[in-house]
Amino acid sequence: MTASVRAVFLDRDDTIIQNSGDLGDPDEVRLIADAAAAIKQLQEAGYRIIVITNQGGVARGKYSEDDVDAVNQRIAHLITEESGALIDRFYYCPFHPNGSVTQYACEHPWRKPQPGMLLQAADDLDLDLAQCWMVGDQERDIEAGIAAGCRTVLVRTGQPEQAGVTKADLLVATLTEAASAITGGGEGPPETDRNDVDSHTPGSDDTTVEAAGPDDQVITRLTDLHTELRAMRAAGSEFTAGRLLTMIALILVLGLAVGCALYMEPQSAVVWVVVAGVGELALIGLVLLLGRQR
Question: Which of the listed residues 107, 172, 235, 268 has the most CB atoms within 10 Å of its CB?
């Protein structure tokens, strides 16, 4: 069944709230003027509201994941209190390659400008990413949105120097202007049945990132495959059964490698992982070859 749900992905800091540094205290949360009303406008137009935020302060030891959850809960409360709008989901990435906390000191597919959080939300909520928007105040937000296949809006948020070169589809001054641009043009999105939408409590298990496990490389590869499929579709490539079967085979080979590494004796596992690696390289070459044949 084809995904039909639309959403607006919102960056958190300096898009919804005033914060240019590390924020781990919910008492310091301050909504940007009219942000709650803008979110209400988007929600009334039928969009689900999803907050996507890098929280590298966790990796740098500035605050904990529990602190991130508390700040997110405070944001959700203030928005509902001010406008009646609901945030459907919060996704955050606590990882940073230069972090000082060992378990978080790494790169991760969820960290913007990579599109991991958006792709996860699409899987969780059955979103049609081609009909979604990513709104943020930094170019990394725009790059994440583009990589996921969304339309994008760069919000200057009181920083006019950002009026230069950007990859965003739209450049506006405030979140209010972004909401008007998204909801005001064309036919507009259909109303969404909100009966099946949980009134999300930030910090629940389905919205936080666990520390990278042994299969983290597989997650990265699957994300790359997801992006490649969208790029092929956007470029107008013919999506053949051969390509589909080849990519399915590639995923199965990756699963074999992980299964061997996790469950087999070390000596046997090495042999099978090498075989899987060779097979993977061959399949990647076949995918690229098929991608060029139009």
Answer: 172
